[in-house]
Structures are given as C-alpha cells and as structure tokens.
Specification:
The chain is an alpha/beta fold. The protein contains 3 helices and 7 strands, in the order αβββαβαβββ. It has a 7-stranded mixed sheet, with helices on both faces. α2 packs parallel to α3 (about 100-105).
Length: about 140
C-alpha cells in the first residue's frame, strides 16, 4: 500500500466513524502557517463549526514499516501549532516508539493504530488526549 492509498483508507474509515452533517474530511488540504507564513499541506483535515466557532482537526498518516518515532510527533506538533489546529491525530500501521507516545501525551496528540486489513477493533487508540490507556473505538455505524 502506498502512502497516498493509506491516506485514502484512513479518510474512508474516519468518514464512516464521523457521519456528522456539515463535516467533511479533506485529503491533502493546504493551510497557511500563522507564524511561518508558508503553505503547509496536511494528510487529512476536518473542519466543523460549533457555536459559530471554526474547529480544525488534522490527521497525520504514517504508512511505515517501522514504529513512529518522537521526531515525527514533534514535527507534527509544530505543523499543528503553525496552522492553529485544535486537535491532532497521528495514525499508523505499525505502532509508536515509547518516546513518541510520551511526546504525544504531553502535547495532547491522539495516536491510533489502523491497519488496512479489516479486523475487530479496527481503530485502536494508543493515546487519546493525555490518557495512555489503550482502548478500541466502537465500530462505525
């Protein structure tokens, strides 16, 4: 599976888990950095309006053959901060090194395992906000 195919797969799964009216999940959307002023392309993003406030969540997809390391989490956090995202979710096929889990926990970034082969508990949250307790999400639908 190519990185783009994995991004599309993650987009499909999250779209099924979040069937809210008015919420679209964008693939490779571009945002302008508030600090850097550079154009930043994100793997997936979803925007919604709550009480007339725009909320932005960004999903970073890692289709790796090795566990995600701390530098990936730190780079993602920098991207989130620059574009002013409210929440970040990092999704991978393999897992996360201990340093990556600790960094994500400290930064409030959610971590999830998602494999392309359907299985029970298809999305497993490794870190959800600042909680380290692994738990499966309920199935879509």
């Amino acid at each position: 599976m190519t990185p783009e195919e994995y991004e599309r797969f993650v987009q499909k799964v999250y779209r099924e888990m979040m069937p809210l009216p008015g919420v679209e999940i964008y693939h490779r959307k571009t945002y302008k950095g508030k600090v850097s002023q550079r154009l930043i392309v994100v793997d997936l993003a979803f925007e919604m309006s709550v009480c007339r406030a725009r909320l932005l969540s960004v999903i970073e997809c890692k289709c790796y053959t090795h566990k995600v390391d701390v530098s990936d989490v730190e780079e993602f956090h920098s991207k989130l901060d620059d574009i002013g995202a409210h929440k970040g979710i990092m999704v991978t096929t393999i897992g996360f090194q201990e340093g990556a889990i600790l960094a994500a926990r400290g930064r409030g970034i959610a971590l999830a395992l998602l494999t392309p082969n359907p299985q029970e508990g298809e999305v497993i949250m490794v870190v959800n906000s600042r909680d380290l307790t692994p738990r499966p999400l309920p199935p879509p639908g």
